[in-house]
Amino acid sequence: ERRHRCGACGKMFKKSSHLRNHARTHTGERPFPCRECGKSFNSQANLLRHHLTHTGERPHECPECHKRFAQTSTLRQHLQVHLRKFPHRCPECGLRFHRPHRLLLHRSHHTGEYPYKCSQCPRSFLLRRLLDVHLLGH
């Protein structure tokens, strides 16, 4: 429940410490200076986040491409790239694909379904056109 109200804008907060940090956005107070560069921040959390720019630490890893980020917000923003580029997700293993037919091909690895069987050898295929191409080689 949010029971702490900002007197300046009316925004509500669950914790008084959050209200205190927020109130500094109205007053301009920035009591947390960076020892490296002198830039000041309105909260300890923002200072710690900023400190990563000096250390080069990137603790947040993208599960899709393993790129690393200093901030969770930057990782979240980056993940949208994967969701837009690869919207088709395999329900078995979570892999994502750009095109739906690529997902269909991939899923056959889980199901073992290859419905198009070659009449001249033991091979079978997920898609008819793949069987047709294969038959050209016989």
From TrEMBL:
<dbReference type="InterPro" id="IPR013087">
    <property type="entry name" value="Znf_C2H2_type"/>
</dbReference>
<keyword id="KW-0539">Nucleus</keyword>
<feature type="domain" description="C2H2-type">
    <location>
        <begin position="116"/>
        <end position="138"/>
    </location>
</feature>
<feature type="domain" description="C2H2-type">
    <location>
        <begin position="88"/>
        <end position="115"/>
    </location>
</feature>
<protein>
    <submittedName>
        <fullName>ZN574 protein</fullName>
    </submittedName>
</protein>
<feature type="domain" description="C2H2-type">
    <location>
        <begin position="32"/>
        <end position="59"/>
    </location>
</feature>
<keyword id="KW-0805">Transcription regulation</keyword>
<keyword id="KW-0479">Metal-binding</keyword>
<feature type="domain" description="C2H2-type">
    <location>
        <begin position="60"/>
        <end position="87"/>
    </location>
</feature>
<keyword id="KW-0863">Zinc-finger</keyword>
<dbReference type="Pfam" id="PF00096">
    <property type="entry name" value="zf-C2H2"/>
</dbReference>
<dbReference type="GO" id="GO:0008270">
    <property type="term" value="F:zinc ion binding"/>
</dbReference>
<keyword id="KW-0804">Transcription</keyword>
<dbReference type="GO" id="GO:0005634">
    <property type="term" value="C:nucleus"/>
</dbReference>
<keyword id="KW-0862">Zinc</keyword>
<dbReference type="GO" id="GO:0000981">
    <property type="term" value="F:DNA-binding transcription factor activity, RNA polymerase II-specific"/>
</dbReference>
<keyword id="KW-0677">Repeat</keyword>
<feature type="domain" description="C2H2-type">
    <location>
        <begin position="4"/>
        <end position="31"/>
    </location>
</feature>
<dbReference type="InterPro" id="IPR036236">
    <property type="entry name" value="Znf_C2H2_sf"/>
</dbReference>
